[in-house]
Design goal:
The chain is an alpha/beta fold. The chain has helices at 12-24, 60-74, 93-104, 136-142, 149-154, 165-168, 172-184, 197-208, 220-227, 259-272, 281-286, 293-305, 325-336, 351-360, 401-410, 419-425; strands spanning 4-9, 29-32, 48-52, 79-84, 106-110, 118-121, 124-127, 130-131, 160-163, 189-192, 214-218, 249-254, 275-279, 310-314, 343-349, 365-373, 376-381, 388-392. The chain has two domains: 4-227, Rossmann fold, CATH 3.40.50.10840; 249-425, Molybdenum Cofactor Biosythetic Enzyme, Chain A. It contains 16 helices and 18 strands. Strands 9-10-5-11-4-1-3-2-16-17-18-15-12-14-13 form a 15-stranded mixed sheet, sandwiched between helices. The longest helix is centred in the first third of the chain and has 15 residues, at 60-74. InterPro entries: 4-carb_acid_sugar_kinase_N, 4-carb_acid_sugar_kinase_N_sf, NBD_C, NBD_C_sf.
């Protein structure tokens, strides 16, 4: 019987969105920002531990080393492994899987997340039916690269095989036998096609019941199906816990430059009347050395100290380089940190931004409580009194995601809209 699960993710929002399903199923679930020394800073008796290794921007070799170190530091008898990867295959995930495979067995590679439009067909990721290679996300960081899962894994010298969706939809015993045969034949990474949540559920049920050494490699989609299994863990479930309603200022911190995030901010401004400040990248590049740094500190502080809600996000200019994302997020957090004590709630969009903000105010772990919508996790810091915190990946979620998170923190129902407004929104 499985006593617990370790989720290793390469960024904070990914760790939270992958683990939140287990919290919703009544399992005590914590996220740590310090994967290799978490044994002394986090309650390892939690059923589910999600470790953010912060490896998205490292070299593949560095990411592989840190990921393997996290597993060695946090593994325990009966605790199984889930390597969380981005559903659009960003980051160093193949190097990380290659580092874990000799330690944990057969890699069950299933990045599909049908609830968010990500599916896998013939070993290739589709985003709302379109090939991953055609998306803005892939072109921004991987232009010209083959996005086929087999090609990516074989570049790490892993022996691969594709498990068809037909196998998932067949007899459960036959599915388990096929997976076991792959492992016996020397396959190291089994790539799984999946087009629906039912496909992932079949995979979860089959692999959870197997005794062969294996670990899961997936996004939040497969994790949710594992979380829904009633007998996955040998531990009792907990009653649902709620975060206290936020009465003071709520800060929405947006480090993502995706079009999705922009639309989410627009809905929050429109429906909740939240003011917005867009910080120029030039200010963040220079930090405290920029001549207007003090002015930005004052503008942000004046609103939050007055108890006013505020969106603060990174702007875009012609000099923007995706590689500077971590630096901009760290400087954005430094701009906000002096005013953190005035917050009653924080919504952070973008894994790098969320991590930078928590690190800036010395929050090393979170306990996950609830989910606003797929991928939007509500948590409370391990130390009280501190504000409730919501994390969300940048290019992720519906247009309603930030507004829904804001209403959740306020403990308020969504206001009814007039028929005319509803038609206009369409």
């Amino acid at each position: 019987m499985t006593t617990g699960l370790l989720i290793i993710a390469d960024d904070l929002s990914g760790a939270a969105d992958c683990a939140i399903g287990f919290a919703g199923a009544g399992r005590r679930t914590v996220v740590t920002l310090d994967a290799t020394s978490a044994g002394t800073s986090i309650d390892t008796t939690a059923t589910v531990i999600a470790a953010d290794t912060d490896t998205r921007r490292l070299t593949p070799a560095e990411a592989a080393e840190r990921t393997a170190a996290a597993w060695r530091a946090l593994q325990s008898p009966g605790r199984r492994l889930y390597k969380k990867i981005d559903s659009t295959l960003r980051g160093n995930w193949t190097a990380e899987v290659a580092a874990l495979q000799p330690l944990a067995g057969l890699a069950i590679v299933a990045p599909a997340f049908p609830a968010t439009g990500r599916t896998v067909r013939e070993g290739r990721v589709l985003v709302h039916g379109a090939p991953l290679e055609s998306t803005e996300t892939w072109q921004l960081e991987n232009a010209g690269r083959d996005a086929g899962l087999a090609a990516l894994l074989q570049a790490e010298n892993l022996r691969t095989e594709v498990l068809s969706v037909d196998a998932l939809r067949g007899a459960p015993d036959a599915l388990r036998e096929k997976i076991a045969a792959s492992a016996s034949n020397g396959i190291q990474a089994l790539i799984v096609d999946a087009e629906t949540s039912d496909d992932l559920n079949a995979l979860a049920r089959a692999t959870a019941a197997m005794s062969e050494p294996l670990f899961w490699v997936g996004s939040g989609g497969l994790a949710r199906e594992l979380a829904a299994l009633p007998n996955l863990f040998d531990s009792e479930t907990l009653s649902a816990r709620q975060v206290a309603k936020s009465a003071g200022a709520i800060l929405i911190l947006v480090g993502s430059l995706s079009a999705v995030s922009e639309r989410q901010c627009a809905m929050l401004r429109e429906r909740a009347g939240v003011a917005e400040l867009i910080v120029p990248p030039a200010v963040l590049r220079e930090g405290a050395d920029h001549p207007t740094w003090g002015e930005w500190l004052g503008r942000i502080g004046a609103r939050l100290e007055a108890g006013a809600d505020l969106i603060v996000r990174i702007g875009r200019d012609d000099a923007f380089d995706p590689a500077e994302g971590a630096h901009l997020s760290t400087t954005l957090a430094a701009l906000v940190a002096p005013h953190f004590a005035h917050l009653d709630g924080l919504i952070a969009t973008g894994g790098e931004t969320a991590r930078a903000m928590l690190a800036a105010v010395n929050i090393g772990s979170l306990e996950l409580l609830a989910e606003v919508e797929a991928g939007v996790a509500v948590a409370r810091p391990g130390t009280a009194p501190l504000p409730a915190i919501v994390t969300k990946a940048g290019a992720f979620g519906s247009e309603h995601a930030l507004y829904g998170a804001y209403l959740h923190l306020r403990g308020a129902p969504e206001p009814e809209r007039s028929a005319a407004a509803t038609v206009a929104a369409r």
